[in-house]
Amino acid sequence: MDEENQQTASTKSQILENARQLFAVHGYDGTSIRQLTSSLNITPAALYYHFTSKNDVLEGLAATLHDASDALLKRISNFDQSDQHMREALNQYYDVLADDIHVFRLVYNDAAIQHSPIGQRLRAQAREFYTYLVGQDPSVEDRMRAAGAVGVIRLSLEQRGMEPQKYRDVIVERAFRVMTDN
What we know:
By secondary structure, the chain is mainly α. It has 10 helices and no strands. The longest helix is centred in the N-terminal third of the chain and has 24 residues, at 3-26. The chain is elongated and about 55 Å long.
């Protein structure tokens, strides 16, 4: 990669990281283009060189989570409801969230992001994963178990200072036990 491409990639990466922080503090709707640019000492024109809009910034920020979720859904599409496949699906879900928990938290907690195009796609992916967990015609108990299993993973990863890889097996095993009611 030549120096100009490295600089472009670095600026784009800085914009995304800055957006993640600002969206977390002020919300998506509460963050302006001016805020996104002034804290990086760049002009709005420089931002627009990399992104066409604030929504495009959001799309860029959530792209990794979206692509990883898509890949997860493809991998589990042929899984059955066996304990082995259920455990593997929860392991893979854990890994997806662990890699991008900050963006997941933004989507989960910000209504404006939830209603954005990328938010809608991420929510559809979450529903598809949930459908894998509960099956096509879930009972109330199945829904409660799935919500509990997903919650164990999500809430554990959201704990500040928690080392995701250190506790992965314990957390996924607990989520599996909740899911299977063991």
